[in-house]
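Hey,
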Amino acid sequence: MKIMHVHFKSPGTKPGVYPIARRGEHLKHLSFTIVELGEGFGEHSFETGEDEVSLDFYTGPVRVTVATAAGTQVFDVAKRASMSANHVIVWAPRDAKIKLEATDGNAKVTIGAAKATKGGQPAVLSGVEKEVGKESFTRTVFTHIADNVPAERLICGETVNRPGCWSSCPPHKHDVYRTDPAGGPGEVPMEEIYYFQLDPPQGFGFMRLYTDSDDPQPFDHSFAVEHGDTVLIPRGYHPVVACPGYSLNYTWILAGEGRAYGAWTDDPKHSWIKK
């Protein structure tokens, strides 16, 4: 696996539409696009087609208009208080028409998408907040899209790393079917995308993407991730750490052969840290 296929640097903030990953080209199930709204490009319209989508917001405010066969809904998304605070994600079904409008200055929106066969009613969703881990791997997880909407494949949310702290620890993966003899969720193959924001924005973090050494196609890559970077996770373990002094937020978007949050396997070499 070549690093260029999974780590994409920020496209910058010039107004426009920036497709980062296309389903069937970069990943099997997921696609991901960054939309920068601003001077000369204050709105962007698109159709979801055969995809369900998640819309996440980083600056703003933004007006989101979603038209489906059942009618039209308008969501006014407020300007974000900070990258560490709970915010909202909008879920929209397939066969919808969506318009994004910046209502006061520039606005950044990301679009995560996965193929779906059924529809539903669009919704604006706050994250369900949970503190995870302990000591130097304490982080805040906001789960926005789970069983609260009729999503077929997508599971989405955000994680906030405190300065100097780790997340996705112990390192875990979700790339095979594996049952849990103890009756837990086991493991389900799901791809994932991480989209990073740093506060202050000149900060950085590191991410490692790797497999077990006995994997039939092993790899081990590490990346310095900066504000606006995207990393695709087709498989493998994927821990993240923030540089001291900088809060690190990443949007995470999952889709795959199944749909089950928590259906992953920890790296057995490091699972002891939870105890």
